[in-house]
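Title: Prediction job returns without error message
Component: structure pipeline
Severity: low
Priority: P3
Assignee: unassigned

Description:
Job completed but the reporter wants confirmation the result is attached to the right record. Sequence as submitted:
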Amino acid sequence: ILVAYKTGKLVEVALRSFEKFKPDDLDITYFVVENSDETSYCSDLVKINPKVHFLSTPAANGCPGSIANGLGIELAKKYITTDYTFLCHSDVCVTSKKFFTELENKGNEGFCVVGLSKDTIRTGAAHASGLLVSTYILKEISVMPDASFLQSAFQGLDVCDRLTEYCKDNNLPVSVFSNTHNDISLARGLEGIYKDMGESCGVDRSISD
């Protein structure tokens, strides 16, 4: 599930990166949720993969970002039939085949939530910008943010934080990969362009185990 807001070009880049690095035997069904009435890029996405389902939630237009993101996920999750669901923002890009193998390994190890980064100011939850979650858990609870979070980012739960909290409350395993968002010094140990970007470029880089 990828939730967007008038970012058609970014969505296209994201989907092309998934398609470029996915295993040949992996069949992905995409749900792209546009939180506005901007639907002109829908036809371009189907050209990337015919299994792109485009949903629109114009009612979310003008809502705070976390609410809009949550509304999009809540809409799309009704249609998921796979055991696991990957949730992400529109400004993501897969850069290696390891993305798929590492997530598959984590799923096989029994982790119910696998994050690519984590929140740093509230509960340490797997961040909604990119996470794999058991579809059962995704459908069992709401991903909407707390009202208190909307008053202050330092309190309450943000969108999707509740997935991690549910796992903690029920003693279910959660894993989060290292990410420069959580430790900017990790950028020094990277190679090539991922190091050349620098530590404060604004691009978070998730690092495999």
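Comment from assignee: result matches the submitted record. The chain has a mean pLDDT of 93.
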